[in-house]
Amino acid sequence: MIRVLIVCSWGMSTSLLVESMLEAAKERQYELYVEALSAGEYSAKVETCDIVLIAPQIRHLRKSIEKLAQTVGKPVALIEPFHYATMNGQAVLEQVLRIVNGT
């Protein structure tokens, strides 16, 4: 099971991306858990995930998110704006797999 934490503004549009990612994972027979939380809520959950993704609209918070994630050894990545805008769950899943598998 891969546990993904997406840090976003409010989580409304991100919920569509979460659904798309879960659908892509199901098609590829991956066990995936994805949770989208606001920048004010994510810190309580960072220890329980395998990777932290940052939504493009809050990329200005990247350094502070990375700092917290590094304290618990979690990788952090920015979601490509085009993939976020098009809700391309397949592409974001590929990004997660590359990072988690170290390729």
Automatic annotation (TrEMBL):
GO terms for biological process: phosphoenolpyruvate-dependent sugar phosphotransferase system. Residues 1-103 form the PTS EIIB type-3 domain. This is PTS sugar transporter subunit IIB. PANTHER family: PTS SYSTEM N,N'-DIACETYLCHITOBIOSE-SPECIFIC EIIB COMPONENT. Coiled coil: none annotated. The modification Phosphocysteine is found at residue 8. It comes from Reticulibacter mediterranei. InterPro entries: PTS_EIIB-like_sf, PTS_EIIB_2/3, PTS_EIIB_3, PTS_sugar-specific_EIIB. Keywords: Kinase, Phosphoprotein, Phosphotransferase system, Sugar transport, Transferase, Transport. It comes from the Bacteria. GO terms for molecular function: kinase activity; protein-N(PI)-phosphohistidine-sugar phosphotransferase activity.
